Amino acid sequence: MSEEVTTNEEQNPSLGIEELIGAIQAIDIACEEGAYKGWEKIQQVFAVRHRLMIFVNFLQERMEEASKSAVGEATGTAEVGETK
C-alpha cells in the first residue's frame, strides 16, 4: 500500500508575480534563441506574452495602490478627496 503525499502547494496552487515575470523572461529568451518556428507560432507565443504582461502590470498597480493605502492608514493621512 502506498499513500500519495500532497504538499500544500499541490492542494492550493498559486502563482506569484515573480513566477509570471519569470515566464515572460523565458518566452523572451526562447524567442531570442529562435525556439519558435513559423509566423503563426510566434504570433501565438507573443499573444500569450502580451496577456501575461498586461496581467503583471495590473498586479503591480494594485500592489502599489494597496501599499499607498496601507501607508496612509498607518500614518493617519488620507488622499485628496478621501474622507477619514
Description:
- The chain is 68% helix and 0% strand.
- α2 (17-32) runs antiparallel to α3.
- The chain is built from three helices and no strands.
- It has a domain at 38-75.
- It is mainly α and 84 residues long.
- It is flat.
Blueprint (SSEs and pairs):
Elements lengths: L7 H4 L5 H16 L6 H37 L9
Helix pairs in contact: 2-3
- Inertia-based shape: flat
Straight-line N-to-C gap: 61 Å
Mean of pLDDT: 84
Let me know the number of strands.
Answer: 0
> What structural category do the secondary elements indicate?
mainly alpha
Total number of helices: 3
- Helix proportion of residues, in percent? 55-70%
Give the strand content: under 5%
Q: Secondary-structure element order, as H and E? A: HHH
Residue stretches low in confidence (pLDDT < 50, at least 5 long) are none
How large is the radius of gyration? 20 Å
Main beta-sheet annotation: none
Key words describing this protein structure:
84 residues, mainly alpha, flat
